[in-house]
Amino acid sequence: MKKDLSNKWAFVTGSSRGIGQQIALGLAQLGCNVIIHGRNLDNTQKTLELLAQYPTKSTAVAGELDSAASVAALISEVRKIQPNIDILYNNAAISCTSTPVFEFDMAVWEKVMQVNVLALAQLCNAFGPGMKERNWGRIANLSSGIADQPNLAPYSVSKAAVDKLTKDLAFEFKDTGVRINCIDPGWIRTDLGGPDAWEAVESVLPGVMAPLIIADNGPNGEYFCAQDYKFFD
Description:
The protein is of the alpha/beta class. It contains five helices and seven strands.
């Protein structure tokens, strides 16, 4: 287990608020430098202010995840700051309006799959090979325990796709010091989770750090649940 992430660089998507903001704080607490991300730079200021209390480097990039071109532009901005990303935390995701399952417009499916799956795959393609070449890296993909809600099918199917891609990439990394895993934060009171969710956003810490501090030969392609980790030994 590696609890010290000093001198490592992490990129966390969707980290201007909510779960992503907590992930950024958890990384800084472990000594990691963090590149945070929001749709625009103004949205990232609060997270940057919170990170200022730690003796680590933090900066922000802005961009959408709604097309291959916009993700490519975001990757370019990240590389200008730090070409060698050690930790990729794919946190950003969107859901959809509750709709009878047979009535979803295909445009909704396309939008959700682009942000939640295709953008994530593009980011893994961008930063995963460098991790493999350097023989160290961590990729954490936010998953979901959603079940039996066909009224949210585009979202739930997108998360199932994330889980499968994670397993496929884990096989690619199996003989290296790179680990990729999924993590379910739980049902959290955020804009996505809604006001009726069971847990406060702060409850994701320290659990969301679990897939990052594992040994280099540790879990790979596995499914973590943040709420299972109320503290670390």
